Structures are given as C-alpha cells and as structure tokens.
Amino acid sequence: MTTADRRITLIGAGLVGGLLATLLAQRGFKVQVFERRSDPRRAGYEGGRSINLALAERGRHALRVAGLQSVIDPITVMMRGRMIHDIDGNCLPLQRYGRDDSEVIWSVSRGALNIAVIDAAEKAGAIIHFDQRLDRVDWDGMRLHVTDDQTGESREVEATCLIGSDGAGSALRKAMSEVADLGERFEPLDHGYKELEIPALADFPAGTLPANLEAAVARGERYAMEPNALHIWPRGNYMCIALPNSEGSFTVTLFLPNEGDPSFATLTSADDAMTFFQRDFGDAVPLIPDLADDFASNPVGMLGTLYLDRWNIDGRALLVGDASHAIVPFHGQGMNSGFEDAVELADLLAASPDDIGGVFDEFSRRRKPNADAIAEMALDNYIEMRDRVDDADFLLMRELDRTLSDAVPSHWMTHYAMVTFSRMPYSVALERTRMGEALLRELTAGKASLDEIDLALARERVLAAMPPLPAF
Ligand code: FAD
Description:
By secondary structure, this protein is an alpha/beta fold. Helix content is 38%, strand content 21%. It is built from 16 helices and 19 strands. The protein has helices spanning 15-26, 40-43, 57-65, 69-72, 110-123, 171-177, 214-218, 270-280, 291-297, 322-325, 334-351, 356-388, 392-407, 415-420, 426-444, 455-465; strands at residues 7-11, 30-34, 52-55, 76-79, 81-84, 95-96, 105-109, 127-129, 132-138, 143-148, 154-158, 162-164, 185-198, 230-234, 239-244, 250-257, 301-307, 312-313, 317-319. The strands form four sheets. Strands 6-5-14-15-16-13-17 form a seven-stranded mixed β-sheet, sandwiched between helices. It has a six-stranded mixed β-sheet with strand order 8-2-1-12-19-18, with helices on both faces. Helix 1 runs parallel beside helix 5 (110-123) and helix 3 (57-65) runs parallel beside helix 11 (334-351). The model has no long low-confidence stretch (mean pLDDT 94). Bound molecules: flavin-adenine dinucleotide (FAD). Flavin-adenine dinucleotide binds at residues 11-17, 34-37, 53-54, 133-134, 165-167, 171, 193, 253, 301, 321-323, 329, 332-336, 338.
C-alpha cells in the first residue's frame, strides 16, 4: 500500500493537529480532520483575545519542514531575553537568552499560527470538518460518533486509523481508555493563570495613556515597553509575564496560587485585584488600562502535567501533543514538543505506511522519554522563573554557564540553549543539565563573582566530567 491509499483521521485541528495534517497530506496521505470549533478564519479565533506563545527552534524547525517559514515570520516578534521588573518598579537590564540574535525565541499569536497551519493543511489536500465534535468511538466497527456543535446533529463516520490531536482534555483519549488501560495520571499544579492585556500605544482608551509614554507615541512607537523581550515580574511564589504581539500589544499572564494568600481564592473582587497589582506589580498597572474589568471577566486557567504509560492502541489509535503529554507552560515548550511529535510521526508513517501499528509503537518508544524529560524541566523552570531569576547565586551560576559555553563549546551548552536553540532530544538535554548544574553549583560555591572563579580549572573540570556534545 502507498501513502496515497492510506486514510488517516485526526481529531482536533489545533496547533499540533493542523501541522500534522499538513505534513501527512504533503507526504501523500488522505487526511481528514474533525474539529470541534468553528473555522477560525470565518468565526474569529475562540476567545477573541490576543493570546501568544513562545516559539523556539524545535517548533520553528517543524514549521520550516512544512514550508511555513515565510508565513510565520510576519506574525512573530523576536524576544532576545528576559527583562525583569523588580518590586520597586525598576526594569533591570536585558538578560540575554543566548550569545546573539541567532539565539532568541519568538512570540507568536496562537490564533494566527492556528490559522496558518489550517490553511497549509487544506492547501496540501487535507479535509477539515469544523464544528464536528468527537463524542465516542465504536471500536468494534471502527466508527466515530461526531456531533455538529452548530446544529446539534450527530452522525457516524468510518475510520481505519485515528490520531488524537485534541488537546489536554482529549475525547479520543477518553474513548481509548474504555478499551485499554493507558495508565493515565494528571498532576495538577497548585497555581492557575489569568491573561490580561497591555494595549498597543495607539489603542490605549482615551485619557489612559501614561504621560511618560506620550513622547514614544509622538515618535511613532507602537509598544508600551521594550518589544524584543519576555518581561517577568518575579515575586517569589507568583509572577506576571508579558510577551509582545506583532501589532504592538503585550499579553500579560498572571501565575498565582489557587489557594492561600495571595491567591485566586482571595482576590475575589476587582478592588482586591487592583490593590494587589498596585502593591506587587506597580509599574505594570498604568499599562493595563482594563485591569479591573479584565481581571473580573477573564477566566482562571488550570495548569498541570499529564502522564500516560501508553499512547496508542495497536495501529488503530494514537495520541499526540497535549492529548498525550500536556505540561506546565514554564519552559514554553508544550507546542514546540507537539510540533516535534508531528514531524517525527509524519516521517515514520511515510517510511512505513503498511505498518501503522509498528509506527505507532516506535513513535511512542522514541517520543515518550522526551515528553517525560520536558515535563520535568518545565516544572523546574517554574521555580526558576518565579523565584530565582533575581537571586545573586543563580545569576552567578548562569554567568558561569554562559562563560563555559564560550570556553568549552565542544562539551558545554547552557541548559536553556539545549532546550530552546537546539533539537537535541529533551532526554539528553535533561541528563546533561543534571550533570552541568551539579558542576556549576560546585564551581560557584562561596563565590561572589566570576572574577573569583579559576576558569582554567573550571574548563578542566568540564572536560573531565561532561561527554562531548552530540551534533543536533
Ligand atoms: P490544543 O492546542 O489544545 O488543540 C486541541 C484541538 O482539538 C482544539 O482545536 C480543540 O478545539 C480540538 N478538540 C478538542 N476536543 C475535541 C473533540 N472532542 N472533537 C474535535 N475536536 C476537539 N507552548 C509553547 O510551546 N510555548 C509557549 O510559550 C506556551 N505557552 C503556554 C501558555 C499557557 C498559559 C498554556 C496553558 C500553554 C502554553 N503552551 C505553550 C502549551 C501549548 O498551548 C500547548 O502545548 C499546545 O496548544 C498543544 O497543542 P495541541 O494541538 O496538542 O492542543
């Protein structure tokens, strides 16, 4: 059988489903996708708010493989590093992520990216059925029960091979669990999140533009803060971050405990929220003119990590992206890892279209250790972002980390570079991070600055302790 005879049915045309449909159709498979939401090109992206994500090398590589680089470039904004806002309202100098502008991450609109992959999938020949929600699967007859969310009508559809790209609350995963033990475990985080907005300078409601930004408007600037950075307001057990959007706004995300003080449970009114923001994020308040209203109306999102022992039922069904390995967003890698899934799966299927069961097993064998590794690193990064980015010991470790990557490039890459700028398997990046952090702690112990560290000795220790870097 060739790929052209092989029909594949996807559930979910979100970020991963849209890209996977593109890659499979480009490789000649007959692809159909059932998507619960309406077509975002006609209906507007769900929620209507500008929500963005950080796109890193793994995700960009996958988009390049799909031929989407030129479509994506205009909707992304370069973020060179972190910009920390301290409790006194000072904005500290940029902490670069990498050596130069070749080592950066990119902020991209979720809605625009979703539309780009959906467009590409259709252009490649995939058929996407919008407003079609998967309810359940009749495994004996391999029939899907789908409901049209607009009309309420249900119908049955035949399928031979199913791929679930239907996100963390996957309906296909639920259906698979009815006939197989997937070993599912969800570990909720005790923090939730809420999204707010810093408008583009031109869009501040009349009378709300802070006086210090009037000159910026006069100069024709669009952004209320430095655009080419990921802004962080770290406050110990909670934080805000802000990522730029290409039209001049920023999406602000508050990460806060669900219980305790302060928490989403204690900030019950718009007044509580204003008082809390004035106290802890004072410099951001004048930039978020709709803070009180948005805080009251925007939902609190839930966060957590999904673990499965098993991702497939022989060649009948497989889960990818958040449907099999949803993670907390603190390394900005959920979509990036889902995009890696899509490329790896499309390549495996194209190489062995006659052995879908073997491909699904092999895909799970290859990807699961990497999914587990990025899940762990994402949880570690939460502590780092909210608690450590402004602590002196941590900053010295990061300085030595960067110094070693220049001094011993054959054996040392920063943790951030391995995860974000390379395509080294996450499991390898995690193993090297564990070894590297132990060495950094040892070399910086009791030291106040880089001048106090014997760099020749540090270099020797790296060459002795770390295996050479693999090529990725
Ligand atoms: P989804 O994007 O959830 O898409 C699932 C699709 O399936 C949707 O279109 C949905 O409508 C459809 N669907 C669901 N149920 C059904 C059904 N029954 N029938 C038919 N269709 C259905 N990742 C990054 O890489 N970088 C970041 O900076 C980043 N930031 C994040 C910030 C936050 C606050 C959060 C919560 C996540 C973040 N992520 C980030 C993670 C990223 O959002 C996810 O990993 C990514 O969206 C997963 O894509 P997906 O296609 O697997 O799932």
